[in-house]
Amino acid sequence: MIWTIVLLIVGIALFLFGGMFVALDSKKPSFGGIMIKKTIKLISIILISGCVCRIVTPYYLVKVNPSILQTMVTAMQEQQNAEKSKVVRSYVRSHMDEMTADAPIWGKEDAKKTVFLWSDYSCPFCRRVHGELARVMEARDDVRVVLKNFSIHGDLSDAPAKAVIAAKLQGNDKASALDRKLMEKDYFTQEDMKDRSKLGDKVHKNVMALAKEVGLDVEQLERDMKGPVVARELANVRELAQRFEISGTPYLIIGEQAFPGAIPYDQIVEALDK
Question: Could you tell me the CATH superfamily of domain 87-272?
Answer without folding.
Answer: Glutaredoxin (3.40.30.10)
